[in-house]
Specification:
Chain lengths: 543, 165, 455
């Protein structure tokens, strides 16, 4: 069994152990979970070290085992493989997942009731998230993608806040709405793509990304325009998958599940939601939407960029108006993920690299931010900004980490988000001259978003942390609001160091992904352009 | 010539009394009209040279089942007043769907080639001997399985009818 | 054929056991007999034998569905210990009736002649009319029985009329002869196909002929409702598909559009009404209507591995239904009713039951790694391959609606509290059957090739 399968199935093994342990060992559950996460992080380190950075445009650590093989009579054969691998795009996200999982496992210390169920579901979700980033068979990807939803639904719905049922169901139905239609596109793609060697229809994503494998005249064939219900098939297929992932990212106006889910979810789940789930949306858009439908991606690029800009600005403006600290951070996530979309839409190497780094950096920063909110909430069960004042003198260490997280998030040079956002904006700015896809004003609007994020972060800092100490709960609160505990240090310090490290030595990240992204963007643009020219859609979406 | 006039007379009788079954207000009258319908159909069987069917139809339907019907009706003491009133929209829906079904059937039957293609043309098919040959050769399995069906029905009837101890 | 004989004789033997008051022997004898019947059916694999002047054809289709019916009945019998005793003194007769119904089901999946189809359906139906009315003192049960009987008799009328017209058009009851008669253009034949379709739609509760379903399911005892949802539905669809596959396949251009419309009506009628149900049994009844819609989707794809798709779907549906109805029986027995609120706090008192029910409804809803997901996936796939994109899109919307109402019971079990709930006691039969079902739902969910490669 290779490293990737190990990282995916390690949690499943420990999940079984937890289920078998009788509940008088319930104190062990959290240590088992933490141990699993640390082991996974160790494997992630091995993958990082063994990853061939020069050849990162190819897939490495490949594994392929036949899974479901059936004969469909006159429809040919159905072949689904257990097919895994990572490249320069998925490796950083896989490593990020392992790191965030450790933080989430530590912050799960706050969970006190029904621990067996909680940690079992947590590990199941852990396995599914790792699987999503590594799956190279579209069917397998879908299975992992859906598998991740169900534990999350229970984790929010059973251990969440007062309106948890509503939030959990909303989250679940939103995501499912996207993904069931994605399933139809998957089947459509299956009937359009054949394995170049065996000639059988295939779910293999690598084959789907190569235009040469499409059956001439099939539904999603890039040569001739086919229509489904009157709409060009490739555009429709792209749009359906894009919407599925855009709900995950989330892109305004499909974001309304996010604030609800975050407000109700317990801290570790918020961390995973913001730190990893949103990244799956971004990853899916780049790997699947852009990878399989480059022509449609080009066709819609203006539109995607526009959605990115709207998300950046709308998220930031909403964050400015929030009184609930957790909601503020949730909306700041919407805003920051907008940059990812903008970077992808630019079809430049700088923009795409920046967007990918933004995902990694936001993964680390949102972990910190949600963890910090959790620290406050666990102590006094309140997180309304007006209820706190002058926390700086009361909890100096806590405030220090809040300042690091806030400044890093608003894009202060020296931190990872600065590099990420700068690259994204450079890419967007260059797009007009390099490939003419995105107008320059989008870059300017994006930088306006950075300005707004500075405004809401600094304003929050001023309202909550500076000034004379005064709490809504009076003396009782001052007693409860003690400074950071050791296990909280254990999460926050490494995260702060990580964001600083990526800010100072971005090559740690770029070396991993650069050659992959440079090739990929180039290739996507060229094939996309070629097909777009040959398809000749009648009306153009560029305004 | 006589056969033909007999056919038309029996057909008229069958359709008229069938209509009367559903039009009659009094349930007892309905049942009596139904008996008349069965008699008319028995006549048709005789015209088709199917004596066995004719006798069975007479004994089983007109005889046994109808008497049972009458008994039940008289025990329940139904009359015109107790008949439930259906809302108008159900009546309209019933007329529309029934009319559509009639349309399909009339359309289907109109196109039938009456020269006898398809079905059997043998005129002595309905005689007991021939029926027995078919029933105990080709249709032996359905015939035997019908015993399972009857046994099931019998067990069920006893089960529902018996007084619980 | 041997399995049919064994099942019929077994039913009579069980009646005799009842006569001589060997109540304890009922279950062991039935289970042994059913296992023998399943084994004998398996012996017929790949033989393609015709019986009694082509009345029955035991091809692999018939064998696979017969075994499925027999094994599902076996699972239901596993739950039946101490069940009928609470309702009535005549326990043996109920086992016998269920076995007779099973015999009818076996005939329905193996017929090669319209006369056999009719007899099979009647044996199955008549047993069920009685079984639905087991609780003679309960007006709801009486209503269910009567309603089912009247509707069923009506459906039989349609079926017979259709059979007669088809005989008139083709001159034969034999499926192969009908298929090769070349009478597909004649109006008589078409009217016959439509009438048979109506008759069969009644039996498998396809909208707009489904209106009896919720009342009958609700009025019947839980175990009988389970039998209707699993064995009867499987047999009905297997017969439906067998008829349309073996006799009417050539005329598919004519009936496909009708089936497509029935499919949409069924999906929307079943799913939308299910959303508004607050009793679990009624919810399951409406969901069984909606599943008939998904199965129709497979029938549309006649010839394109439709039989395999129907087999996979019915296996998944039967497994999940056994678990869902079984737990419904336990909960309504312990808490007095089957209202969704009765499921509150089940996760705390009975984690195993809550988990099993969650798995069952996830399978019904089609969540990946359960058997139901692959069933839906397979059905959608064969329909898409036939070009029914618009139909599949509508079906997917319905799957979404389905998830919404199936999750209501999960929400009740896991996220709502019931302070005075006590743990429900399980007898070993329940524990065994539910464990088997959980195992199989996972097994077929992770390795669907095991069942999808059968046909």
């Amino acid at each position: 069994m290779s490293w990737i399968s190990t990282i995916i199935f390690l949690p499943v093994v420990f999940l079984v152990i937890i289920l078998l342990l009788p509940s008088r060992f319930r104190e062990w559950y959290r240590y088992i979970t933490l141990g699993t996460a640390i082991l996974q992080a160790g494997i992630a380190c091995i993958i990082y070290l063994r990853f061939d950075q020069a050849g990162s445009d190819g897939f490495q650590f490949l594994e392929k085992v036949p899974w479901i093989h059936l004969s469909l009579g006159n429809l040919g054969r159905l072949e689904i493989d257990y097919f895994l691998g990572v490249d320069g795009l998925s490796a950083p996200l896989l490593i990020l997942s392992a790191v965030v999982m450790v933080a989430a496992a530590i912050s799960s210390w706050e969970i006190k009731e029904n621990m067996k169920g909680y940690f079992a579901l947590f590990l199941l979700m852990d396995a599914a998230i790792m699987g999503v980033f590594c799956a190279l068979d579209f069917f397998l990807f879908y299975v992992f993608y859906e598998l991740m939803l169900l534990p999350l639904y229970f984790l929010i719905g059973m251990w969440g806040g007062p309106r948890r049922e509503y939030a959990a169901l909303k989250f679940f139905l939103y995501t499912l709405f996207g993904s069931v239609f994605m399933l139809l596109v998957i089947v459509g793609l299956y009937f359009s793509v054949t394995d170049p060697v065996s000639g059988a229809y295939t779910f293999n994503m690598l084959h789907m990304m190569d235009a040469a494998n499409f059956v001439p005249g099939a539904v999603f064939s890039p040569e001739v325009v086919q229509t489904i219900l009157g709409v060009p098939a490739r555009l429709l297929g792209f749009a359906v998958i894009f919407i599925a992932f855009a709900i995950k990212v989330p892109v305004v106006p499909l974001h309304t599940w996010l604030p609800d889910a975050h407000v109700e979810a317990p801290t570790p789940i918020s961390i995973i939601l913001a730190g990893l789930l949103l990244k799956i949306g971004g990853y899916g858009i780049l790997r699947i939407c852009f990878g399989i439908f480059p022509d449609s991606a080009l066709y819609f690029s203006w539109f995607i960029g526009m959605l990115g800009v709207i998300s950046i600005l709308y998220g930031a403006l909403n964050a400015l108006a929030m009184k609930d600290l957790k909601k503020l951070i949730a909306y700041s996530s919407v805003s920051h993920m907008g940059f990812v979309l903008l970077g992808f839409a630019s079809f430049t190497t700088e923009g795409t690299s920046g967007a990918l780094l933004q995902m990694v950096s936001h993964g680390i920063l949102s972990t910190m931010l949600f963890f910090l909110v959790g620290v406050l909430y666990n102590r006094v069960h309140d997180r309304f900004i007006p209820n706190f004042r002058g926390l700086a003198s009361h909890m100096p260490h806590y405030t220090a980490f809040v300042m690091v997280a806030f400044f890093a998030s608003l894009g202060l040079p020296g931190f990872s988000a600065f590099i990420a956002e700068a690259f994204t904006l450079i890419g967007t700015f260059n797009s007009q001259s390099v490939n003419g896809l995105l107008p320059r004003w989008m870059a300017i609007a994006g930088s306006l978003g950075i300005l707004l994020s500075a405004a809401y972060f600094l304003w929050t800092l001023q309202r909550m942390f500076f000034g004379t100490t005064r709490f809504r709960g009076g003396e009782a609160w001052s007693k409860q609001l003690i400074d950071l505990r050791p296990h909280e240090w254990a999460v926050l310090l490494p995260m702060a160091l990580l964001t600083l490290m990526l800010g100072i030595f971005p090559s740690l990240f770029f070396d991993l992904s650069n050659s992959a992204l440079a090739n990929m963007v180039q290739e996507l643009f060229e094939t996309g352009k070629r097909h777009l020219d040959s398809l000749q859609y009648t009306n153009n979406l560029r305004f | 010539m006589l056969t033909q006039s007999l056919f038309y007379f029996l057909s008229f009788l069958a359709i008229f009394s069938a209509l009367a079954v559903i039009i009659a207000k009094n349930p007892v009258h309905s049942v009596l009209y139904l008996i008349l319908t069965f008699f008319a159909i028995t006549g048709h069987y005789i015209l088709l040279n199917a004596q066995f069917l004719a006798i069975v139809n007479m004994i089983v339907y007109a005889g046994a089942i109808m008497v049972l019907f009458l008994f039940v009706l008289m025990l329940l003491n139904l009359n015109a007043e107790t008949e439930p009133q259906k809302p108008a929209y159900i009546k309209i829906a019933g007329v529309v769907s029934g009319g559509l079904l009639l349309l399909v059937l009339v359309g289907a039957l109109k196109t039938v080639d009456v020269s006898g293609a398809g079905g059997t043309t043998a005129t002595d098919m309905g005689l007991v001997e021939n029926l027995g040959m078919v029933l105990f050769n080709e249709f032996l399995l359905p015939f035997e399985l019908a015993s399972v069906l009857l046994l099931t029905a019998m067990v069920g009837a006893v089960l529902i009818g018996r007084r619980e101890a | 054929m041997t399995s049919l004989i064994i099942v019929s004789v077994l039913a009579v033997a069980v009646l005799y056991l009842g006569l001589f008051k060997y109540k304890t022997a009922l279950l062991p004898v039935s289970v042994t007999g059913l296992l023998a019947a399943a084994a004998m059916a398996a012996m017929d694999w790949d033989l393609e034998k015709m019986y009694f002047s082509e009345m029955m054809l035991f091809d692999n289709y018939a064998v696979a569905f017969s075994i499925l019916l027999i094994l599902t009945t076996l699972l239901i019998f596993g739950l039946s210990r101490n069940y009928f005793e609470k309702i009535s003194n005549n326990v043996a007769e109920y086992y016998a009736l269920m076995l007779f119904a099973l015999a009818g089901g076996v005939v329905m999946v193996s017929f090669h002649n319209l006369a056999m189809l009719f007899i099979g359906i009647e044996i199955l139906s008549i047993s069920l009319y009685v079984l639905a009315g087991i609780r003679r003192k309960d007006p709801a049960s009486n209503e269910a029985s009567l309603k089912y009987f009247l509707m069923g008799a009506f459906a039989t009328g349609f079926l017979l009329f259709g059979t007669a017209l088809i005989y008139g058009a083709t001159g034969s009851f034999n499926l192969a002869a009908i298929a090769s008669s070349g009478a597909f253009e004649s109006a008589l034949f078409r009217a016959g196909v439509l009438l048979m379709m109506v008759g069969l739609s009644f039996k498998v509760s396809v909208a707009p002929f489904h209106t009896w379903t919720p009342d009958v399911y609700e009025g019947s005892p839980g175990l009988i409702a389970m039998f209707m949802a699993t064995v009867v539905k499987t047999a009905g669809f297997a017969a439906f598909l067998r008829l349309f596959l073996m006799a009417f396949a050539e005329a598919s251009a004519f009936w496909a559009i009708t089936v497509a419309i029935l499919c949409i009506l069924t999906l929307f009628a079943g799913n939308i009404t299910a959303v508004f149900q607050d009793r679990f049994k009624r919810l399951l009844a409406w969901s069984s209507v909606s599943h008939a819609g998904y199965l129709l989707l497979a029938i549309l794809a006649v010839g394109f591995s439709a039989s395999s798709a129907v087999l996979v779907y019915t296996i998944a549906y039967s497994l999940a239904s056994v678990a869902a109805f079984g737990i419904m029986i336990l909960v309504s027995r312990a808490r007095g009713n089957d209202h969704l609120d009765s499921f509150n706090g089940l996760a705390r008192t009975n984690p195993f039951l809550a988990f099993t029910l969650t798995l069952a409804v996830c399978s019904l809803a089609g969540i990946p790694l359960t058997a139901g997901f692959f069933g839906k996936f397979y059905v959608f796939k064969v329909a898409l391959a036939q070009g029914y994109t618009w139909l599949v899109v509508l079906a997917v919307i319905n799957a979404m609606i389905g998830i919404y109402y199936y999750f209501k019971v999960i929400i009740a079990m896991y996220m709502k509290e019931n302070a005075n709930a006590v743990a429900i006691q399980l007898n070993p039969g329940f524990r065994l059957v539910l464990s088997i079902v959980v195992f199989l739902i996972f097994l077929f969910g992770i390795f669907p090739g095991l069942i999808a490669n059968i046909l």
